[in-house]
Structures are given as C-alpha cells and as structure tokens.
Amino acid sequence: MVFVVPADASDHPPSKRVRRWPVFLLGLILGAGVTIGVFLALGDRPPWMAGTRGGDASPKKIEAGDAPTDDEVLDYLDGKTLNLSVKDVNEKPKTVTLKRANLTDLKWTGAGQISGAENPWNHTYMCLYSDETGTYILDLRIPVRAVGSRRVFLPLDSAKVTPVDKVFTPPMKK
Hints:
Largest sheet: 5 strands, antiparallel
C-alpha cells in the first residue's frame, strides 16, 4: 500500500508559493472603491465624506410627495375661511376664518396622488382650532404640486370641521 502525502506550501520553492495577501488586499481596495462609487452615484455621501463635495449652488429639489413642513402648512391655512356644519338645513352655515395663532396640534396623516405628474399630491392633516366661537377638529386635504424647486399649494380641496365639547390635556409626568 502506498500513501500519497500532499505537498505542503513550505515544500514549494519561494517562486511557486501562493501569495494570498496581495490578492486579498487588492480585493479589499477594489470593494471599498466600488462602495464609495455607489454612494457617490446615488447622491448620498458616506458620513465620513460629508461636506467634501463643495458648495451646491442649487437648492434642494422639492418633491410634491414630500410632506410640507408645519410652518408651510400653517402659513397656507392662515386666513382661510371654512364653513361650520349646522344641524338645521334651513339655517345658514356659519363660517370661521382661520388664524395661525389659533391652530394647534398639527399632524400629517398621509398623502396620495392619482398617477401623473400634472396631478397634485393630496396631503391630509388633522389639527385643533380654537377661537371665541369654540374649539374644532379640522380634517384637511391640501393639494400640493412641485414646480421647479418650489412647492405650490393649490386651493383647499376639502375640510371637515368637527365641533369639540371639551379638550383634555393630560398632566405632565415628573
């Protein structure tokens, strides 16, 4: 019986030895280069490269699907007139003119769009409105379109105004 013993790397002359470290380092460098290239191609810089691209002269592109800021929505609602629902159909509907200072607890609840860039995104919001006539919950659908680098608010699409009997504010935890 003859046993064949595999040759060890130390049995090879130095010129024939497998050199794995240079190949490993080359692969590591290429992998890091590809990763950085993908980050740059997608426009998102890795955190350690923040601020290295130079000053971008153009403003951030605004998308209509992005939720408007609370300040934009409050500015938009300031001065809008809404009809209050009345129970008697023979009674003339009451109206309320919104004031920014009286709007609180603004909350974005969602958005949707009928396909097509020319159709606006409809952002839905909920907030409280209080004035001398009472307190109301406002459920609003605000249409928004992006035009260039600007966000354009279209006329208020729908607003549901619900009168409130009492608002309870829970005590702060200590």
